[in-house]
From TrEMBL:
Alphabetical list of InterPro entries matching this protein: Aminoacid_DH-like_N_sf (IPR046346), NAD(P)-bd_dom_sf (IPR036291), THF_DH/CycHdrlase (IPR000672), THF_DH/CycHdrlase_cat_dom (IPR020630), THF_DH/CycHdrlase_CS (IPR020867), THF_DH/CycHdrlase_NAD-bd_dom (IPR020631)
PANTHER family per record: C-1-TETRAHYDROFOLATE SYNTHASE, CYTOPLASMIC (PTHR48099:SF5), C-1-TETRAHYDROFOLATE SYNTHASE, CYTOPLASMIC-RELATED (PTHR48099)
Listed HAMAP family: THF_DHG_CYH (MF_01576)
Binding site for NADP(+): 165-167, 190, 231
Lineage summary: Bacteria, Pseudomonadati, Pseudomonadota, Alphaproteobacteria, Sphingomonadales
Protein name per its UniProtKB record: Bifunctional protein FolD
Record flagged with keyword Coiled coil: no
Source organism per UniProt: Novosphingobium mathurense
Length: 294
C-alpha cells in the first residue's frame, strides 16, 4: 500500500510556523503583515478560493483586504489599483486572482506588481530569480509541492523526476525547484509523445496537466512518489459532483507515496501563500532578500 501524504496536516503545521513568524514581524513592523487580494468578476470558484485565502490570513494574525471589481473593469483601472497597493506601506503582499477576464492583459497586470510584494511569484523578476537560484518569492503551489515531497524524500540528487504540465504557475517553476535539488528533470505536456513510457521511468511524478485521471496505474513505477496537482470538478455516477485529480488514485497502490485530491496540494497552496506574505513583509524590512525559502 502506498502511503498517503497528508497535505491538510502539513498545511496546518506550516501555518503554525507562519503564525510564529508573524508575531515577530508584527513587532518589528509596528503593524501586522498585510495581504491585498484582488478579484475581478464573479467566477464562483475564484470567490471560494479568495474567501478561503482571506480567512486563513486572519487565522495566522495577518491583515487582509479584499478588492472586488466588476467583470467589466478597465485594464487601466486595475493597473491604477495595483499602483496604489504598490505604494501602500500597510500592504506587504498583493495577489491578483487568476484567471482575469479576456479583455485584460494578465501579463501586463502581473508585470505591474512590485516584485517584493508579488506573493504569487509570477512577476518576471521573480521568475528570473527562481531560474537562477537567487532567491525571490517562489510561486505558492510549486513551493507546496516541494514541501510535500520533502516529507518523503531527503536527497533528490540524481533522481528521475517527471513533471506533466508546462504552465508558468506550476509546471515550469516546479521543474526549476527540482533542478535546484539536482534531480534529473523531464518536463512533459499534453503533446508529449510516449508520455506513459516517460512517466514509467520516474522516481518522482508531479502531475499538473488538469486532465482528470490521466496518469494510470501502469504508468507508475513501483515505489515512485506522486504529487497530484490536478483538481477538476467532475460529475459523479450518483448525479453529484466531486473533485478529481490527474492521477487514477485507486490504481497507484504500488507507489511509495501519493497525495490525495482534495487534501493534498490545495491546502499547501494556501499555507504557502501565507508564508510568502510573511516573507514579503520581511523583505519590506530589508530581511531575507537573497534566501530561497525552500
Ligand atoms: N493569483 C492566483 N494565485 C493562485 O494561487 C490561484 C489563482 N490565482 N487562481 C486559481 C488557483 C487555484 N488555487 C487553489 C487554491 C487552493 C485550493 C484548495 O484549497 N483546495 C482544497 C479544497 C478544494 C475544494 O473543496 O474546492 C483541496 O484540494 O483540498 C485549490 C486551488 C489557487 N490558485
Amino acid at each position: 500500500m502506498s502511503a498517503l501524504i497528508d497535505g491538510k496536516a502539513l498545511a496546518r503545521s506550516v501555518s503554525e510556523q507562519t503564525a510564529e513568524t508573524v508575531r515577530g514581524l508584527t513587532e518589528r513592523l509596528g503593524q501586522a503583515p498585510g495581504l491585498a487580494v484582488v478579484l475581478v468578476g464573479n467566477d464562483p470558484a475564484s470567490e471560494v478560493y479568495v474567501g478561503r485565502k482571506v480567512r486563513e490570513c486572519r487565522k495566522v494574525g495577518m491583515r487582509s483586504t479584499e478588492h472586488r471589481l466588476p467583470a467589466a473593469t478597465d485594464e487601466a483601472d486595475l493597473l491604477a489599483l495595483i499602483e496604489d497597493l504598490n505604494s501602500d506601506p500597510t500592504v506587504h503582499g498583493i495577489l491578483v486572482q487568476l484567471p482575469l477576464p479576456d479583455h485584460i492583459d494578465a501579463g501586463l497586470v502581473l508585470d505591474a506588481i512590485t516584485p517584493d510584494k508579488d506573493v504569487d511569484g509570477f512577476h518576471p523578476v521573480n521568475v528570473g530569480r527562481l531560474s537562477t537560484g537567487t532567491g525571490g518569492l517562489v510561486p505558492c503551489t510549486p513551493l507546496g509541492v516541494m514541501m510535500l515531497l520533502d516529507t518523503v524524500i531527503s536527497d533528490y540528487r540524481g533522481l528521475d523526476a517527471v513533471v506533466i504540465g508546462k504552465s508558468n504557475i506550476v509546471g515550469k517553476p516546479v521543474a526549476m525547484l527540482l533542478l535546484e535539488r539536482e534531480a534529473t528533470v523531464t518536463v512533459t505536456h499534453i503533446e508529449t509523445r510516449g508520455l506513459s513510457e516517460i512517466v514509467r521511468k520516474a522516481d518522482i511524478v508531479v502531475a499538473a496537466a488538469g486532465a482528470p485521471g490521466l496518469v494510470k496505474g501502469f504508468w507508475v513505477k513501483e515505489g515512485a512518489v506522486i504529487i497530484d496537482v490536478g483538481i477538476t470538478r467532475v460529475a459523479l455516477p450518483d448525479g453529484t459532483t466531486g473533485l478529481m485529480g490527474d492521477v487514477a488514485f485507486d490504481e497507484v497502490q504500488h507507489a511509495r507515496a501519493v497525495t490525495p485530491v482534495p487534501g493534498g496540494v490545495g491546502p499547501m497552496t494556501i499555507a504557502c501563500l501565507l508564508s510568502n506574505t510573511a516573507k514579503a513583509a520581511a523583505l519590506s524590512l530589508g530581511e531575507a532578500r537573497h534566501r530561497l525559502s525552500v
